[in-house]
Write a structure and sequence with these properties.
The complex is a heterodimer of chains A (330) and B (144). Chain A is 25% helix and 15% strand. By secondary structure, chain A is α/β, with parallel strands linked by helices. Chain B is an alpha+beta fold. In chain B, 48% of the residues lie in helices and 19% in strands. Chain B is globular, with a radius of gyration of 15 Å. The chains are: A alpha/beta (330), B alpha+beta (144).
Chain lengths: 330, 144
């Protein structure tokens, strides 16, 4: 079951760990043209410790008669509403803000977003994402706004397990500005709001799913402790090439993880991005033209890393799977 | 004195290469048969190695992403001796990362990583992370 949260821009408030919702019973239906109906009543929904609604799908109408009672004109000392519809004095009413429906779990294809969508993003990953960082770096020579200038926190053989460990000389953590640090600290320093994570390849060998889920949950909790106002975009682990299947880590095991990850996202209110589908062939293997280290090229090749063509496909997937988000207030 | 001269001569002895770092890198890539490299620029060194641009007078670097043990060539001329010390530390950290990472994958890669080292000649610092590091080092040394 997908957790669905509907918002209307400008109508959702976060109040002390609660969501603020508008009671649709008081809101006229879509066809209503009456501009002077009373504002809707307010329902407060509890949120969990991660700031996600608890067993609730708050829905806020985009009806132009609804309005956020907390919105006041700062120049109006009386704190009275500035919405001309409320007091019936309104002459022209601007178009209502578009309804934004946020559906967690698997992200379906969206209209292609622009670069700015990623301006508050950080991309976390292992050596696969490291290649993406090189690709982004090169793209930014032509278009500095590519991927919004979003930061990368990547390290070869990085994993959820490694991310839980303290930083030591021998630990594996990404560096930010040249300093190796915990990702929750780096994210807080960056001030990122959209957290894209592609990890798991170095965790799930031998179907090590449960421990990986535990470590992932631990990392997400740590990130939320230091950066509460963020959205998580958890990316599926990408496939290996057909000739790179190993007993302990093959595409069946990867798909098994991705299925669990998708369910986890649905249940916990995170976005699931199935990058796997974007870079795989009809048999579910990493497309040969997207693989920079096919096994046929040498003994040390793993059949998992991306070429720039693969990165291009991956990035295009991100641009076209960019769920609209409500504007945050305050 | 003669002994010192002899020693310097045997080691090359120069602290300035007889070619630019970029031409040395091209020679290494060509003679070691490395393709598909991703060339790095001065501004990239901070993100990937923690090296500040102000510490760099000249550099040539590239990486490949073609296996468990990707090739990595970093040659830097520091802006001064203090900067050289900082860059050396950054590359030692990087080598340590490679050691940690390769340790997780397989014994062969780890064994190769253990043989790689940071080379310091005055203000020139270099690191070759590769299964071909011996040949790379030899080609680099020939320019000093």
């Amino acid at each position: 079951m997908k957790s669905t949260v509907s918002f209307t821009l400008g109508f959702l408030m976060l109040l002390s760990g609660c969501t603020l919702d508008i009671d649709m019973n008081t809101v006229p239906n879509e066809t209503s043209t009456n501009k002077s109906e009373a504002p809707p009543s307010i329902v407060i929904h509890p949120m969990d410790e991660n700031g996600k609604p608890i067993e609730h799908k708050p829905t806020v109408s985009d009806d132009e008669n609804t309005q956020d009672p907390e919105v006041t004109d700062p120049d109006n000392n009386g704190g009275e509403t500035t919405d001309p519809n409320i007091d019936g004095q309104g002459a022209e009413t601007p178009d209502p803000p578009p309804e934004i429906t946020v559906t967690y779990g698997r992200v379906e294809e969206t209209e292609r977003c622009d670069d700015s969508y990623f301006s508050d993003a950080v991309f976390i990953g292992d050596s696969i994402s490291l290649m993406l960082s090189y690709y982004a770096r090169d793209q930014r020579k032509e278009n500095p706004a590519f991927l919004g200038g979003g930061q990368f926190l990547t390290s070869g053989s990085f994993s959820y397990r490694n991310a839980t460990l303290p930083v030591t000389e021998s630990s594996i953590h990404p560096s930010y500005q040249g300093e190796k640090m915990l990702i929750e600290d780096a994210i807080a320093l960056i001030g990122a709001k959209k957290i894209y994570i592609m990890l798991g390849m170095n965790d799930i060998a031998g179907k090590n799913y449960s421990a990986t889920l535990e470590n992932m949950t631990e990392i997400i909790s740590r990130i939320l402790e230091k950066s509460s106002d963020v959205e998580f975009y958890l990316e599926s682990v990408t496939p290996r090439m057909e000739d790179a299947q190993k007993e302990r880590l093959n595409n069946d095991i990867i798909r098994g993880w991705n299925t669990r990850l998708e369910k986890y996202c649905e249940e916990n209110g995170y976005f699931f991005l199935n990058v796997y589908e974007a870079v795989s062939d009809s048999n579910g293997n990493l497309k040969a033209e997207y693989c920079s280290d096919p096994v046929s090229a040498g003994d040390s090749c793993m059949g998992i890393h991306m070429t720039y063509a693969g990165c291009e496909k991956w990035v295009e997937y991100l641009y076209t799977h960019a769920p609209a988000l409500p504007e945050k207030k305050g | 004195m003669a002994l010192i001269m002899l020693t310097l001569s045997a080691c090359g002895g120069k602290t300035e290469p007889d070619a630019s770092l970029s031409s040395i890198m091209n020679e290494i890539l060509q003679k070691c048969g490395i393709n598909g490299e991703i060339e790095l620029e001065t501004a990239d060194l901070l993100d990937y190695y923690g090296i500040k641009s102000a510490d760099v007078a000249d550099m040539a670097a590239c990486v490949t992403m073609n296996g468990i043990f990707p090739d990595e060539i970093i040659m830097v001329k520091a802006s001064n001796s203090d900067a050289a010390g900082r860059i050396k530390k950054c590359l030692e950290n990087r080598l340590n990362e490679v050691l940690n990472q390769s340790k997780n994958y397989d014994a062969d890669s780890y064994a190769v990583a253990q043989k790689c080292k940071v080379d310091v000649r005055g203000e020139y610092i270099a690191l070759f992370v590769s299964s071909k590091h011996e040949n790379m080092t030899k080609l680099y040394n020939a320019h000093f």
